[in-house]
Amino acid sequence: xxxxxxxxxxxxxxxxxxxxxxxxxxxxxxxxxxxxxxxxxxxxxxxxxxxxxxxxxxxxxxxxxxxxxxxxxxxxxxxxxxxxxxxxxxxxxxxxxxxxxxxxxxxxxxxxxxxxxxxxxxxxxxxxxxxxxxxxxxxxxxxxxxxxxxxxxxxxxxxxxxxxxxxxxxxxxxxxxxxxxxxxxxxxxxxxxxxxxxxxxxxxxxxxxxxxxxxxxxxxxxxxxxxxxxxxxxxxxxxxxxxxxxxxxxxxxxxxxxxxxxxxxxxxxxxxxxxxxxxxxxxxxxxxxxxxxxxxxxxxxxxxxxxxxxxxxxxxxxxxxxxxxxxxxxxxxxxxxxxxxxxxxxxxxxxxxxxxxxxxxxxxxxxxxxxxxxxxxxxxxxxxxxxxxxxxxxxxxxxxxxxxxxxxxxxxx
Length: 413
What we know:
Helix content: 25-40%
Structural class: alpha+beta
Order of helices and strands: EHHEEHHEHHHEEHHEEEEEEEEHHEEE
Low-confidence stretches: 3-57
Shape: globular
């Protein structure tokens, strides 16, 4: 189960789709309808059109991570920030950009599962040194604590993620057999073996020792298997990574006094830090007959964490997470820890809450979404934990929040 051929960041998205739109009064419906139109035109025009709505004369700016710190995760996020500090907007924007750039660099170093860095101890170091006590960066330690509290074993599926991601680099269906467990029985058995190790705490487990100290226990049997199969990555946040990065960035920006903004990752993780009176709308996507469209806008105000999962692409950027076969089937990034096969119980599910992080929400909704069948009562259980949901099923868009007034943008079929 060797690594899939992959360059370092060679397919990282350059322009993430803007799924958060700041609204002002009566212009909300017009802007959401414009977003629906721009979806058809393409993601580049979507970004361009959004920026036209914010400028000129707007206090909202897009903060971009610079390159002076080295490779960062900044190109996977859109950070919209509302200026209003001192001594001047230009000085404030420069200070926010410098802070954001540093944070994006640190996040990249901490959460890279297959790289190590001389000035940071992150996930790559843990993978390189199993059965060794290490002191990792505090934000990474907190993220690992969140996963361990949830009871999820998804983090331990590193060998499967490493191989499975090869699907998204395939140029034609004939290449899938090396990576796709739905096509190759040999691959399915390999993934099942790796999943069996991943789900066995006696084979692999993280020991969180306090004060940032961790030890990745890996049994001798698993180590021998890893050496035979060329496995180098035991644990990996993989497609879940940006949920935890969003939490880290938002928390640090707020501590630095730069909380008047909203972070949106290209793959559906949102942290709104803005405590002002601005109205927002979160885009709800659905698919119909193989075509993606904007089904609704979810209005809200104030701090919020949101996670949007969907089983279809909406832009070229999603080639990092989806592969469409010639017969119309779609392979997603949502791999089931039980056997390494991708699953999605619904076309689209968005969960959100004001008092929980993206990581906490994602881990809570994983058993609901990464499943063979949708169980509506599971969303009721999430509601009791302060997690509300919006989901698409059939031709409808449904919500567990009785007070939420969705803006419907697509006509019923």
